[in-house]
Amino acid sequence: MRTLVVAAFLVLAIVPGAAAQGVPSGESVIAWHVTIAPSWFDPSTAPPQITPFGILYALHDGLVRPLPGQKLGNSLAESWTESPDGLVYEFKIRASARFHNGEPVTADDAKFSFERYKGAGATELHMRVRQVEAVDARTVRIHLKEPWPDFMTFYGTTATAAGLVVPKKYVQQVGDDGFRKHPIGAGPYKFVSHAPGVEVVLEAFTGYWRRVPSVKRLVMRSVPEGTTRVAMLKKQEADIAFALDGEDAENVRRDPRLQLVPSKHASIYWIEFAEQWDPKSPWHDRRMRLALNLALDRQAINEASCLGFCPPTAVIVPRVMDFALQTSPMPYDPARAKQLLAEAGYPNGIDAGDFVPIPPFFATAEAAVNYMSAVGIRVRMRTLERASFYAAWREKKLRGLFMAAAGNSGNAASRVAEFIYSKGGYAYGGYPDIDDLFLQQARERDVRKREALLLRIQQLSMDRVMFAPIMDYRTLRGVGPRVAEHMLDTLPLVPFPSWEDMRLKTQ
What we know:
CATH topology of the largest domain: D-Maltodextrin-Binding Protein, domain 2
CATH architecture of the largest domain: 3-Layer(aba) Sandwich
Number of domains: 2
Strand order of the largest sheet: 9-10-11-2-12-19-13
Structural class: alpha+beta
CATH superfamily of the largest domain: Periplasmic binding protein-like II
Number of strands: 21
Largest sheet: 7 strands, mixed
Distance between the termini: 56 Å
């Protein structure tokens, strides 16, 4: 088989002290904004969200994945190739790659992990992959049914977790439930313990192929209250606090001992019109959806909940992604919004029922509710626990209006695949012409032609007011005084540290 070498060597991580292989020391506490779910320990069920990757990339590794300074770096694979016809991808696994139990990472493990995968993007992947072949102990060959330019995006970035490799023998021995109770991976940290709803404890894996982690022990603590996360930073009870907003973020910015670090990842907030394809629903009327869009003062919402770091938008594809449509948000025009409501038959406004926001981003949701109410779109905010929200979203049980968010990487095509394409795992409906454009771009190997198709899809989603996009989300992270190198944003489009490169100050 003639092959075109796409990536045949490892680019060393360009981070301070990356070459040092000292003994891990110290303990770092990371304050999470959500309850850490056992499902996050298992790549096979990862949703189309970025948050689980904060745990997944600590415990697990992939043949390829984001590495410091690289959107798609060689990880467990020392090299990979793509055939000239785009039908075959071959990966050579490092001889030094080991799981936490000391077993070598093999081609059979990679094949098993892919075939076991059923998370976000699984339908697309399994539909397009003809065969996964373990050629020998260290060689994996993946055969596609037809050329698919996005294969590596789906396989090697946070668009999905399909490329993360788990140990076949261990999973078969303990079963799926046993694996989630005590996961074994090939990442820089190994699992120690999990107190449900409280914390997960990880310990440095000194056999990690890339480098020995600097910090010996990571405690991932669930702290849903933002004010508590900030207090922990101030008392040095936590070293990094995720997802701060509003006054909590401002509290960190005012403290000279702390750092407030906005992310650069591919996340966005939007309001879903779950019933827009139902002719009996008021949201079937484009004027109603347009009225809600015009009711939102996106810049004011940005200032209130994101301290001005989150740029307002008009599409649900983050502008930092490849093939994203770069556009200005809809104007804030409450007078026109009221006029459209009246034209649609609601001169006195509408009681629109429950409004369910994705936890824990309630500051943004409350601001949106206030602006909707001001023009006569009256809703009751109803909150769900995060796992329940995701389950209801995936199972299409959320009705009326709800606020969604997604932060996994990839490109415009991977976002369209899940949320705009009618067969997407989280799409409530779609349009035949958009579906046709999506299928066309999936086969198109000419980059400019693909881009034109994806830009057209995004423009159509705007023209038809399929969503009410709010803003590109730049999650605000607080960093405490004990941290020497937080390593946030060193992994492209990932808001979590490169865990093995994070360093604490010498005590």
